Amino acid sequence: MSDRTLVLLKPDTVERKLIGEVVSRFESKNLDIVAMDLRTLDADTLARHYEEHVGKGFYGELVEFMSRGPVLAMVVEGPEDTWQVVRNMMGATNPRDAAPGTIRGDLGILFTENLVHGSDSLESATREIGIFFPNL
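RESULT FIELD:
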């Protein structure tokens, strides 16, 4: 059985030229990249993606950050619970708390610019893939 999950390499990853480093970590884990698109996100896409945060105090800053430059959107495929494998590889949301060996633990600097997004459940992955890759 295989699962798919959404991964977003955020603008700070692109700006810091870390795309290859992060993608290679997923490939080294024997996960497959089945879709990939470099794009700048618009307000509508961000509102759908972050719908649970609309209206919260930090939402404006989140949208400003996520739309300031290109994001690499990917669908990553692997065995059952791939979303959990990816989340473990990402590390804690705050890079200061992320374990060495994780993406955020090794490469992250700021809590507000933490390099990567990964779906937090199979249900979220299905919803988020539909937003970014509706034809999959």
